[in-house]
């Protein structure tokens, strides 16, 4: 049977999606693979299809015990013998699966990682007596500290390659920046893995950020337009999920809370009700959602600022799996950013703190964008994307533009005069002619010192940001980020290139004062 025939026979699909075909081929050739595909992209098929085509057993590692049963049931319905082993089974049930494994009856076995290498029950020793033809590691980003969902038990999987040196391994995730990808390859000891990266763009989701001012009423306004829709509202703290769910219930909304502090029964019950549309709104911490396959989630709201883009994108990705238009709305406040900054500092671990803070900073930048949000997200995941998606709030807002060439020249010449050795704050203080002792005396003698005194600090910050976005300035990645000129800044300094800025409403007066055009 060819892969395409098997796709049709076992899954009822006529063609492969994304790179499924190439991924399946890589596995059938005996190679390792790292698969990055957006949520709902069709990752499961990448190992389920090879599993039916190959002799022997495919072992699937998944962190989500709660979902194993669903996946296994679905496979069995499709005529693919599958089973799972986890703590929800009694001794008899487990024994029966063990004997079915021995007889070679089962094609796919789902396991949680702790099961495999746990001390009292080294399942791996038993598996080595079987013909294991493929190892699939789902949610592979859980192995990385840098990911947003690190699970220590995933680290045990690093010994897989030693236990099964000849068996191909496929690692799958819907979220992985460069650092996480590298971590997955290294920690799993993948052997010359082929990487398959599908586009992460989710065209049917529109992105919006609103300043968080009166979030409860903002929320009610939004929900008013979505009375019949299912949605998820993410909050930072457990307590706030319960409070908000209770408030919404009082308003007549079918809402429930979900967080890791609830007992298992309540969690399962609330999740079930949400899946069956008996409740419309799940007010949750990020503990909710991984692996939840609900196709008609119409909106995902972030009531509080997420810690990083990976988590945010993963969470928004739970909307619109059915391909219908869906919304992602985030309430942003600087206060949230400060709060998270405090959390991000890990005592005694400089590297970790620095990375967390950088990720948080990227998240804050996203909220303050005046350019296409989708483009920013795609760039974040190393994907090229045009500068206009037409369906994020920035693209849908008509920004008035104004000629900011003079402002740009002032900023760029300040960076130049300071020998490209200082960070944004210093450059701004210098431009504004700050009397502070922090500004070196020799700099106070320069002609450019104080040429930007007509603009406020906030205004300069905004313009510096726009210069960076437009590629006239770069902020280095060092421990103390500094501003540097780029190849295109010279033309601006020489007056050969005009620069346009977006006119933000609160800047309108200030900007017209500087630019009376
Ligand atoms: P992921 O694990 O990447 O989030 P799933 O494996 O759950 O995604 O697949 C998402 C949905 O897409 C499922 O309903 C699945 O049956 C469907 N699907 C997967 N591959 C194909 C395909 N080639 N053609 C049509 N539908 C597919
Ligand atoms: Zn856009």
Describe the structure.
The chain has 517 residues and is of the alpha/beta class. Helix content is 41%, strand content 15%. The protein is built from 23 helices and 17 strands. The N and C termini lie far apart (71 Å). Bound molecules: adenosine-5'-diphosphate and zinc ion.
Taken from the alpha-carbon principal axes, the silhouette is globular
Bound molecules: adenosine-5'-diphosphate, zinc ion
Helix content: 40-55%
Q: What gap, in angstroms, lies between the N and C termini?
A: 71 Å
- How many helices? The count is 23
Classify the beta-strand content into a percent band: 15-25%
Write a brief caption for the model.
The chain is an alpha/beta fold and 517 residues long. The chain has helices spanning 3-11, 20-28, 44-53, 65-77, 91-102, 113-117, 123-127, 160-163, 178-187, 215-224, 238-250, 264-275, 309-316, 334-344, 350-367, 373-380, 393-396, 405-417, 424-431, 441-444, 457-469, 489-493, 508-514, and strands at 33-36, 57-61, 82-85, 108-111, 132-137, 169-173, 194-197, 205-211, 230-234, 255-258, 281-284, 297-302, 326-332, 400-403, 473-475, 483-485, 500-503.
